[in-house]
């Protein structure tokens, strides 16, 4: 995953007001770098409204994404790490690590999701990410190979 995550695409923040703000903030580095248009962020948020909090793949982990479209110009990954988790629903779907994924086609989309999910299936990695205090530490944890 080292080719996808850059330290400049990682943000650390104490809290956000709600899950929409979390997605918007998490997406900001990729938006500013031209990876996608504002409409892609809207599509990610609309997907959660339409399908529920499916982006919360495990406790404390959300991977915001939408279908590849002409609004996406480059494959990318960003991360917002919060000190206080944010609820994505009233049923306890919450996250502290909010990833945003952009992909230009279905194959890249699925490959990135698979690789990220495999990395995050290691509870030691997730615990270390939750405890991390710097962008560099997070980047290293995401790049490490088992």
From TrEMBL:
The keyword Transport applies. Keywords: Cytoplasm, Kinase, Phosphoprotein, Phosphotransferase system, Transferase, Transport. One of its GO terms (molecular function) is kinase activity. Its main location: cytoplasm. The keyword Transport applies. SUPFAM superfamilies: Phoshotransferase/anion transport protein. GO terms for biological process: phosphoenolpyruvate-dependent sugar phosphotransferase system. PROSITE patterns: PTS_EIIA_TYPE_2. InterPro entries: Ascorbate-PTS_EIIA_comp, PTrfase/Anion_transptr, PTS_EIIA_type-2_dom. Residues 3-145 form the PTS EIIA type-2 domain. It holds the Pfam family PTS_EIIA_2. It is found in: Cytoplasm. Gene3D superfamilies: Mannitol-specific EII, Chain A (3.40.930.10). GO terms for cellular component: cytoplasm. PANTHER family: ASCORBATE-SPECIFIC PTS SYSTEM EIIA COMPONENT. The phosphoenolpyruvate-dependent sugar phosphotransferase system (sugar PTS), a major carbohydrate active transport system, catalyzes the phosphorylation of incoming sugar substrates concomitantly with their translocation across the cell membrane. The enzyme II UlaABC PTS system is involved in ascorbate transport. Homodimer or homotrimer. Seems to be a monomer when not phosphorylated. This is Ascorbate-specific PTS system EIIA component.
């Amino acid at each position: 995953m080292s080719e996808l995550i850059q330290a400049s695409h990682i943000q650390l923040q104490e809290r956000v007001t709600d899950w929409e703000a979390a997605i918007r903030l998490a997406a900001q580095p990729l938006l500013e770098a031209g990876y996608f248009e504002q409409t892609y962020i809207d599509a990610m948020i609309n997907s959660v409204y339409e399908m529920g909090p499916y982006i919360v793949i495990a406790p404390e982990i959300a991977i915001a994404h939408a279908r590849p479209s002409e609004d996406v110009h480059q494959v990318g990954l960003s991360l917002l790490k919060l000190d206080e988790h944010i609820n994505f629903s009233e049923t306890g779907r919450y996250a502290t690590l909010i990833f945003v994924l952009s992909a230009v086609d279905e194959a890249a989309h699925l490959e990135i999701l698979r690789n990220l999910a495999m990395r995050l299936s290691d509870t030691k990695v997730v615990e270390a990410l939750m405890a991390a205090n710097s962008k560099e530490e997070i980047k290293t944890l995401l790049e490490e190979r088992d």
